[in-house]
Design brief:
Blueprint: H1 11-19, H2 36-51, H3 58-61, H4 68-80, E1 84-87, E2 93-96, H5 105-113, H6 138-152, H7 155-164
Antiparallel strand pairs: 1-2
Helix pairs in contact: 2-4, 2-5, 2-7, 5-6
């Protein structure tokens, strides 16, 4: 019998209470790993899409217990990619640099990570002594699900979900 060991109350909880729980940041301990930089960026972009035209300060984009320094670097990359605009000084902050409907989550992933790598067995090409993989295609299949989601979902889509207070998790 399956017993859920955590309750998802919002997107922030989903990310940091599942993917990035303290003492579980080792990618080998996670069944599927979404880079923290991508998670921070997707959250920030969703909040910018939700916020309208006013600039949003960095600390207002930060998901807890995320690092402001890490988010700052992520936002610099998004600015360089043209996805966000930044303004300094009083009334400064970040705004979307493009229409939220034009940015797919995969665009964010590629802007930050360079590529989307298919998840495979950590022992593949690392001296595995078995003639067939005992995990079959589960890693590849899980990566394909994530690839499809990140390719099919726009920043506008997740901004709307935040406005409605809905999660993307479907049981």
């Amino acid at each position: 019998m399956f017993v859920r060991v955590f309750e998802i109350t919002n997107i922030d909880d989903m990310v940091f209470n599942y993917y990035f729980r303290e003492n579980e940041r080792n990618s080998m301990s996670l069944p599927v790993s979404i880079p923290e930089s991508v998670s921070l960026a997707v959250h920030a972009m969703a909040r910018l899409a939700q916020g309208g035209v006013e600039a949003v300060k960095l600390n207002d984009l930060l998901i807890k217990p995320g690092s402001a320094a890490h988010l700052s670097k992520v936002m610099q990359k998004l600015t360089k990619a043209g996805m966000v605009k930044s303004r300094r000084g009083r009334g400064g902050g970040f705004t979307l640099g493009v229409n939220a409907s034009d940015v797919r989550l995969m665009d964010i992933w590629i802007a930050l990570e360079g590529t989307f790598e298919t998840s495979m067995c950590p022992y593949l090409d690392n001296g595995c002594t078995l003639s067939v993989c005992i995990f079959g295609t589960i890693g590849k299949d899980a990566s394909q699900l994530i690839r499809n989601y990140f390719t099919d979902t726009t920043v506008e889509d997740i901004g709307k979900l935040l406005e409605k207070g809905q999660n993307l998790i479907v049981n």
